[in-house]
Each structure stands twice: as structure tokens, then as C-alpha cells.
Amino acid sequence: MLFQAPPSYRVLIVDNDRTTLEMAQIRLEVAGYTVFAARNGVAALDLLEKEQIDGVVLERHLAAMASLQVLEALGSRLPVLLVGRGLTDEDVEAAAGYGVCGGLLKPFSGADLLERVDRLLAGGAPEPAAVEEDAWEDA
């Protein structure tokens, strides 16, 4: 199955693992997405202020600034795909109120990432949901 992203889709990938970040960036760019990459939450928030982004691929375990802080700053205005090792359905469900629309367990293939990002952007921004305090803690 071939995925064709409209050139207008702009995706931010946030991952502290350089190899994963580069693989994801290349795979999405080849498919036609405009990709912005950040290796930490501070850089991600800076890009979100400067660029118009349509969706975010966010590593569950970030250094320096917690993923939860990035999600809180987004305020569920953008669809988010949460990725990470040891990621559980419970993590994704607990973060749904922050804009997380799905999860992808690492390691993942470029084809899996492309499929999930395509679906993520086709669905658009999520409806804001109530978030229980401490429902999702960043480890």
C-alpha cells in the first residue's frame, strides 16, 4: 500500500534517539511530508511556536523536558502519535486527553510509522477530553 501525503502536511518529530529521529524524518519526507525534527521538549516547543504544524510524533520518554510537559503545552490542539519502548495501551489512553490519538511501540518500521502518521493526520485534531490529575506520569 502506497501512502501519498499532501505537501501541505507538516509533521514535528520529537525523539532523543538520533537514529530513530533520522529514520522517521527520511521516511516521512520521501512520502511527501514536510518534517521538522527536535531532540528534546524545549526544541519541540520552540518549533511549535515558530512553525505551523499539523501533527506530532512524540517519544514517550524524553530527557530534559518531560513528554507530559510538551503535551500540556500543546493543549490537545494537534493530533499526537506517542512512540516508545515499553509503551502500553494504558499510556496511550491516559494521554488521550492531551491530544494523543494513538501509540506505536519501538522499534517500528518506516512503513508502520508512515501508516500511523497518515491515519493520524486524516483524523485531524482530537476533541478535548477531560484529563484526570496524575493519570499519566512521565517516568
Would you kindly provide a written description of the structure presented here, covering whatever features stand out?
With 139 residues, this protein is α/β, with parallel strands linked by helices. It has a single domain (10-123), classed as Rossmann fold, CATH 3.40.50. 37% of the residues lie in helices and 19% in strands. It is built from 5 helices and 5 strands. Strands 2-1-3-4-5 form a 5-stranded parallel beta sheet, sandwiched between helices. Helix 1 crosses helix 5 (110-123) and helix 2 runs parallel beside helix 3 (67-74). The longest helix is centred in the C-terminal third of the chain and has 14 residues, at 110-123. The chain is globular. The protein starts with 9 loop residues before the first strand and ends in a 16-residue tail after the last helix. Residues 128-136 have low confidence and may be disordered.
